[in-house]
Amino acid sequence: MSTPIPSLENLIDHFAALPGIGRKTASRLAYYVLAMPEVEAKGFAESIVMAHSMVHQCPICHNLTDTEQCGICKNEDRDNSVICVVESPQDVNAFEKTREYKGLYHVLHGLISPIDGITPEQIHIKDLIIRAADDVVEEVIMATNPTVEGESTAIYISKLIKPLGVKVTRLAYGMPVGGNLEHADEVTLYRALTGRSEI
Amino acid sequence: MSTPIPSLENLIDHFAALPGIGRKTASRLAYYVLAMPEVEAKGFAESIVMAHSMVHQCPICHNLTDTEQCGICKNEDRDNSVICVVESPQDVNAFEKTREYKGLYHVLHGLISPIDGITPEQIHIKDLIIRAADDVVEEVIMATNPTVEGESTAIYISKLIKPLGVKVTRLAYGMPVGGNLEHADEVTLYRALTGRSEI
To answer: The pTM is what?
Structure first.
């Protein structure tokens, strides 16, 4: 074997620790970084440190922000009677891209998952209940992913919020737009059928 | 749209600049880095700076190293009568993994490619000619990739080295081990046929 270069191995290890990056890709990325001009490599390193120190969770909705409160929570044009509950900050971006939703968000930063040892206390459910108890809130939309963990988290939270007299809704299930009936799984197709609407 | 966070966007840009990393993957990696413990994120950033400052090219073979000369060039057990010419440091690792090759290497750091504006002067050909001119060198193995650029670079170099009285060889072409005749392209199959050997 070629003599290993510790600093290079260390860089490969760091890349390989990222999700979806295997050892071969990590090695390719590390060699690419080494071939960069020094100023670019330093810029990359600084961007990691900067982003990590600047970005934090909004104290209200737990979305990521670099200001005290996030842009959505402090925007007075948003409808504060609706809260959309999502798993991660990326989900907020997905909804914002539709440009249709004008309410607020609440980011759980995880889902209840006994198998992975994630209990309701470890995600931001308590804060959500406190927010939902505010008289101004009329509806909480459970927009967790349609997976086992997403479903059970949605049900768990809805049981806590309903007694507060707040309407709790769930995203519609059905065929994705542009989807193919032939490739749809049975559960999705069944849900699309039972949730059908008049045209 | 959600208010953009400049430091996060900057981090995403840096990830997206890496080869094979699209915008969506870059975003996923950036969010993952933000969710890391601070010490881990700093470690990642430092590993980039460290690797970039420690690792440099060996003055003899241009392989990457963190010592003055690379481990292969300074290893006296290696056969210095053979030089294997490759495109990149990764190729050296690939050969070393076979544990069969005991000679030296020469890393070109690129291939001649007029389309991309890469001329023979921009890759380490001149150093290779000087090395090959040494009386101790008996064979130069052209191990560039079997692509158009790899082929033409191999031919270009062989024309410069042959007049020095040094044997120039090329890697064998043929079926990859474990390959499938049905899926082999015509050129590979033709080469496998013309290069056949008695059993």
So the answer is: 0.80
